[in-house]
Amino acid sequence: MNHDFEKILQAAPSPFVLLDHELRVVWANDAYLQVTDRQADKLFGKILTEEFPSDPDSESGRMLRGSFERVFRDGIADHLPVIPYPISDADGKSEDRYWSATHTPILGAGGEVEFILQHTQDITDIYNAEALSDGNSNLAQTDVLRRAHLVTRQNLELDSGISLFKMIFEQAPNFMVTLMGPNHVFRTANAAYMKLVGQRDLIGKPLNEALPELRGQGFPEMLDEVYRSGKAVTQRGAEAWLQRSAEGPPERAFVDFVFQPLDNVRGETIGIMVQGHDVTAQKMAEMHLREAEERFRTMAHTMPVHVWTATADGHLDWISEQLYAYSGAEKGSLAGDAWPTIIHPEDRAASIAAWADAIRSETIYETEFRLRRADGAYCWHLVRAAPIMDAQGNLLRWVGTNSDIHEQKEMARELANLNSTLEERVEKRNRELEELHDRLAQSQRVEAVGNLAGGIAHDFNNLLQVMTGSLTMATRELPAEAPARGRIDAAMRAVERGASLSSQLLAFSRRQPLQPRSIDLRDLLTDIDDIIRSALGEGMAVEIDAADTLWPAYVDAASTQNAVLNLLINARDAMEGRGKLKIAIANRHFGPKDLLGEPDMMAGDYVEVKVIDQGPGIPAETLPKVFDPFFTTKPVGKGTGLGLSTVYGFARQSGGRVTINSRPDIGTSVVLLLPRAKSAAEPVQWHDPSDIAGGTETVLLVEDDAEVRDATAALLSDLGYQVRTAEDPSAALKTVRQEPKFDLLVSDVVMPGELSSRDMAETLQAERPDLPILFISGYSRDSIVRDGKVDAGVQFLAKPFTKDALAIKVRDALSSVPAAATARGEARPNNACHVLLCEDDALIRLDLADILQGLGTEVTETAFGQETLDKLETEQFDVLLIDVGLPDISGEEVATRVRKQHPDMPIVFATGQAEVPVAETLGRCAVVQKPFGDRDLARAFASLGILPQTEAADAM
C-alpha cells in the first residue's frame, strides 16, 4: 500500500519543515508557512538561520544549533521541549516567542543523515499564561513548560561545557589520552597525540595492539604499575621509539608526561589520563648543542695545549684559561693585539710578521717562539693557527694552539752527541704530530688524545727505548765523578717521564697491554703496605677491611696497585695529609638490572675495592668532570689531570668500572669494581733488586729498528749474554738454519715483511717446543694483545724498558716451562705429582700449598666446591686434597661427584672432625685431622701410593 506522505504532512495541523545538510529549507507545509507568516516561493531554498536570524551566542541560537549538530552527529531525533526564538513577520516586525520542537533525521542510502524534519509548535501563549479563573490545569501545564525550559537551558549549558571541553581537548597543544581498564583501552586521544604517534586507528583498542612498538620500552609496565597502585607517575625527557608509519623506520621521540589514575566513586582505579608534551625538537637541539659545546670544551680545556681564536683580521677574541694560568697574565689582558707582550723580546718581531703574512694570504700560521711563564721563565712553544672558511670560501675566523715543546728542544740539544740522527727524527715526528693535530683541531674530535696516544705509541716508545739504552751505556763509560753524569741522569728522568706519560695516555684510552691473572687483592695491598704508608706520609692512617672469604680478582697486578695508589694519593691531597683512610674490599654479585647503562660489563661476580676518605668532598659541579683526561683542581704544576682518568681506563679495560660518590663536608668514596677470577689466586711475587742477574746463554734478538736493536743488544751483552741479531722474522729463520744453537728468542712484535713475528715464533716452537720466547713492543694493539690483554702464556715486555726490567724478564723466560708444552700434556719436570687443593680459608690454604710444594708436588688452589668441580672438567690432577666444610658444597658431596667421574683418583679429606663416613664408602681415601703438619700429610699421601715411602719418611 503506497501513501503520499507529502500530502499527509501537508494536511497535518502541526507545522513541519524539511531541511538539508546546509539547513536550507527544502519544503514546508501550510501550517508552518502560516505560523511563520511566510510564503513558499520566498522561503524555499533559504537557509533557516538566515531567514530566521538570531545571535549565535544567544540562548536561542545556541539551543537551535546544538540540536541540529546532535542530529547530524548521532543520527537520532533530538527534542527541544521549550526554546525561546524570535520571529519577524512579513513586515519585518520581530516578536519574542516560545516553541517546542522535534528534529528527526532522514537518512540517505548510505546511512548518513541527508535531511532533518523539524516539527515545531508555537507555545508562547501557554508559556506566558497566568492564573485563570477555572483553575489549576493551565497553571500546571504552564509550570511544566517552564520547568522544561529550565532543563533545556541547563542542558544547553552542559552542552556548551562539553563542547568547550572537546574544543580544548582537541586543540590543546599538549597531548591528552584516556585509557580505560587494566588493558589500557584507548577511549579518547586528541590531535596532538595523533600527531605524536602517527595517524592510526586507536580508539577502542588496547595499548599493546594499538602501539605494539612500545613493548620493551618500559611504558606498558609503567602504566600497569600506575593502574595497580593508583599513584601518578611523572617523567621528563623520556625517550620513546615510535612507528609513525607502517612503511617507515622507527622514529625517536622525547616526551614529558604524567600518568594520572582515574578513580570511580568507590576510589577504585578504572583508567589512566595521559597528558604531556612532545619535547623532541628541544631535546635534539639540546643534544646537538651539548655535543658542539663538548667538542669545543674538550679541545680547548682538556688538551695539553693553549687554545685561542681570532677574528678574520687577526685580533684575538678568545683565549683559554690554560694560557692565562701559564703566563700569570690577568684574565682578558691578552685579547686584541696585546698577545705579543708575553713573547720573548728576541722572538716578538718575527712572530708578529709571520702572523701578518698568514692573515694577508689566509694560509696556515705556524711558528715557534718562547712564551713567558708565570715564574718569569721563557719556554719554547709551537704555535699554529688554521683559517676557518665558510662554504663560499670566505674567511670567518682563526683557531690556534700553543704546544709546549720546551722539553723536546732541551732533550734534542742535550742528546745530540749521543745520536746524530735523533734531532732529525724528532723534527720529522713533530711535523707528523703537528699535521695530525691540525686534522684533529679542524674536525674537533673528542677522542683526539686517545687516538694520538695509540697512534704514536710504537714509534715514541721505540725512540724512548733508544734513549734508555744509549744513556745506560753512556753512563757505564763515564767515571763516577764526571759532570756529564748529572746531565745524563736528568735526561734519563725525562725519558722516564715520557714513558710514564705514554703509559698514562694508553691507560685512560684503554690501550695499555695488561697481563691479568688471578690475584688475592688483600695480599696484593698488604704486600705494598710500606709503599702506601710512605706515599701517604706520617699524618695519614690507613685501615684495610677485607671479607674473610674474598674472591680472587682477574687483573694486572702492577696496574691494580698503581690504580689504588692513585686513589689513595688523591684522598691524601683532599685531606691535606692529615686524617684516616679506609680501604674496604668485598665480594659483589651484579645481575643484568644492576648493570643497566653499563654495556661494557657483564652480569656476574666482581671484587669491589672502595677507598673512603673524610675530606671536604667534591663540589657537585666538579663531580661529573673528575674522570675527564687532563681535568684537575690542583694548582698548575701539581698534577697532570691523568690520575683518575687512568684509573677509569684501567677499570674499563679490565672488564670493570670505577664510580665516585661525594658529599660536601663529609667525604668521598671511590669504588673500583674488578672482575672475579675463575681460578684460585696465584701468589703475589715481586723481584727483589738483589735477585736481578744476567747470564751466559745465547739470545737471538729480532728487531727491525736498527737503533733499538743495537741499544737492546748492548744491554743484553752487558748482562753477560751472547747475542745474535736479525732485522726481521725472515732473516731470523735464515740465521737459525745456519746457527741453530741458541737458548732464547727475544722479538719485537710489529715488524715489516710478509712473515709476522707470531708466525716466526710458531715455526720455531714447532721445531723446538721447549724454546722460551720473550716478545717486546711499544704498541698496545699488537698480534699478541687481545682487547688490551696480553695472550695467555706469552712472556711480554713493554717498551721503553730499563736494563733491570730486561734482565728480570729474560731470566723469567729462560726459567719458565713453555705454555704450549703444558697445553699438549707433556711431562712436567721430574714427573711431579699434581695436587688439586680445595680449602676456603685463605691462610690455611696458603700453609697447605707450602707444605705440598715442600713435598715436591705441583699445587693448584681452589676455595669453593663448584670451582673444584669445574677445574676437574678442564684439567688433569693426580690427587684431590679437600676440606670437608666448604661455603657452597660440602667436601663430602664434592668427593662423591668426583668419584663418579674419576673412579681411581685418590682423595684426601682435611677436617676437624673425628671421622669422615664417606671416606670408607668411596674407597681409596685418606683423612688428616686438623691441626696437622707436613708429616701427617706425607703419611696420608704415602698410604694412598701417591708419594714413595722414602719421601714420606723424609718429611717425618
UniProtKB/TrEMBL annotation:
<keyword id="KW-0175">Coiled coil</keyword>
<dbReference type="InterPro" id="IPR036097">
    <property type="entry name" value="HisK_dim/P_sf"/>
</dbReference>
<feature type="domain" description="PAS">
    <location>
        <begin position="292"/>
        <end position="362"/>
    </location>
</feature>
<keyword id="KW-0067">ATP-binding</keyword>
<dbReference type="Pfam" id="PF00072">
    <property type="entry name" value="Response_reg"/>
</dbReference>
<dbReference type="InterPro" id="IPR001610">
    <property type="entry name" value="PAC"/>
</dbReference>
<dbReference type="Pfam" id="PF08447">
    <property type="entry name" value="PAS_3"/>
</dbReference>
<keyword id="KW-0902">Two-component regulatory system</keyword>
<dbReference type="InterPro" id="IPR035965">
    <property type="entry name" value="PAS-like_dom_sf"/>
</dbReference>
<dbReference type="InterPro" id="IPR003594">
    <property type="entry name" value="HATPase_dom"/>
</dbReference>
<feature type="modified residue" description="4-aspartylphosphate">
    <location>
        <position position="748"/>
    </location>
</feature>
<feature type="domain" description="PAC">
    <location>
        <begin position="365"/>
        <end position="417"/>
    </location>
</feature>
<feature type="domain" description="PAC">
    <location>
        <begin position="236"/>
        <end position="291"/>
    </location>
</feature>
<dbReference type="Pfam" id="PF02518">
    <property type="entry name" value="HATPase_c"/>
</dbReference>
<dbReference type="InterPro" id="IPR013656">
    <property type="entry name" value="PAS_4"/>
</dbReference>
<dbReference type="InterPro" id="IPR004358">
    <property type="entry name" value="Sig_transdc_His_kin-like_C"/>
</dbReference>
<feature type="coiled-coil region">
    <location>
        <begin position="405"/>
        <end position="446"/>
    </location>
</feature>
<dbReference type="Pfam" id="PF08448">
    <property type="entry name" value="PAS_4"/>
</dbReference>
<keyword id="KW-0547">Nucleotide-binding</keyword>
<feature type="domain" description="PAS">
    <location>
        <begin position="1"/>
        <end position="75"/>
    </location>
</feature>
<dbReference type="InterPro" id="IPR000014">
    <property type="entry name" value="PAS"/>
</dbReference>
<feature type="domain" description="Response regulatory">
    <location>
        <begin position="834"/>
        <end position="945"/>
    </location>
</feature>
<feature type="domain" description="Response regulatory">
    <location>
        <begin position="698"/>
        <end position="814"/>
    </location>
</feature>
<keyword id="KW-0418">Kinase</keyword>
<dbReference type="InterPro" id="IPR000700">
    <property type="entry name" value="PAS-assoc_C"/>
</dbReference>
<protein>
    <recommendedName>
        <fullName>histidine kinase</fullName>
        <ecNumber>2.7.13.3</ecNumber>
    </recommendedName>
</protein>
<dbReference type="InterPro" id="IPR013655">
    <property type="entry name" value="PAS_fold_3"/>
</dbReference>
<dbReference type="InterPro" id="IPR001789">
    <property type="entry name" value="Sig_transdc_resp-reg_receiver"/>
</dbReference>
<dbReference type="InterPro" id="IPR036890">
    <property type="entry name" value="HATPase_C_sf"/>
</dbReference>
<feature type="domain" description="Histidine kinase">
    <location>
        <begin position="455"/>
        <end position="678"/>
    </location>
</feature>
<dbReference type="InterPro" id="IPR003661">
    <property type="entry name" value="HisK_dim/P_dom"/>
</dbReference>
<dbReference type="InterPro" id="IPR005467">
    <property type="entry name" value="His_kinase_dom"/>
</dbReference>
<feature type="modified residue" description="4-aspartylphosphate">
    <location>
        <position position="883"/>
    </location>
</feature>
<keyword id="KW-0597">Phosphoprotein</keyword>
<dbReference type="InterPro" id="IPR011006">
    <property type="entry name" value="CheY-like_superfamily"/>
</dbReference>
<keyword id="KW-0808">Transferase</keyword>
